[in-house]
């Protein structure tokens, strides 16, 4: 569907209840009032349909986003830089959505879906998405991990005990905790910079 063939009016705007996003809510020609609304819709819609979505190409003009492509996280192909047999998320999934904000005949700067390939070459799992969302660390937990790592120099075992005591209803998975700790662990470069500052 070409951008130029779409007339924008208040009747075209399709409000959707955020807790009832379904597969039928996405179609070529769907209109959003802003890029924020569009991003929010795709985030919720993809999770309710059992996959994660990512932003791919973007075209800007004079600082404004004019076009954006959304892909499934499994879209694209993976090229290994090692000889190891590694599994990867990328399976060349064909799912694709092109969205644009036309300059002409669009006084409200609405955003429209103009291409949709709603196909996947892998299984979709709402349960897996729900599980991934539930095990994410909250902002408060990440602040605790940052403090315990950079200031207290606690290792994973001590941090796990602390977090399980403070957040008893939140599952703590070792792999996720190790990854979070690594984000805040000082690198050799930052340690050298700190040492240089202290010697001055």
TrEMBL record:
This is FAR1 domain-containing protein. It comes from the Eukaryota. It comes from Rhizophagus irregularis. InterPro entries: FAR1_DNA_bnd_dom. Residues 41-124 form the FAR1 domain.
């Amino acid at each position: 569907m070409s951008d130029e063939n779409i007339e924008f009016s208040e009747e075209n705007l399709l409000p959707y209840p955020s807790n009832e996003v379904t597969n039928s809510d996405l179609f070529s020609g769907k209109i959003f009032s802003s890029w924020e609304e569009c991003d929010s819709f795709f985030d919720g819609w993809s999770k309710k349909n059992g996959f994660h979505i990512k932003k791919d190409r973007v075209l800007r003009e004079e600082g404004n986003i004019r076009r954006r492509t959304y892909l499934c996280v499994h879209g694209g192909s993976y090229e290994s830089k090692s000889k190891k047999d590694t599994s990867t998320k990328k399976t060349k999934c064909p799912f694709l959505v092109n969205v644009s904000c036309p300059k002409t005949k669009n006084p409200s700067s609405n955003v429209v879906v103009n291409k949709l390939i709603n196909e996947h070459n892998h299984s979709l799992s709402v349960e897996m998405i729900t599980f991934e969302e539930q095990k994410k660390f909250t902002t408060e937990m990440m602040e605790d991990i940052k403090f315990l790592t950079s200031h207290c120099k606690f290792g994973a075992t001590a941090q796990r005990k602390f977090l399980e005591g403070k957040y008893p209803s939140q599952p703590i998975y070792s792999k996720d905790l190790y990854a979070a700790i690594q984000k805040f662990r000082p690198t050799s470069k930052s340690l050298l910079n700190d040492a240089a500052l202290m010697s001055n």
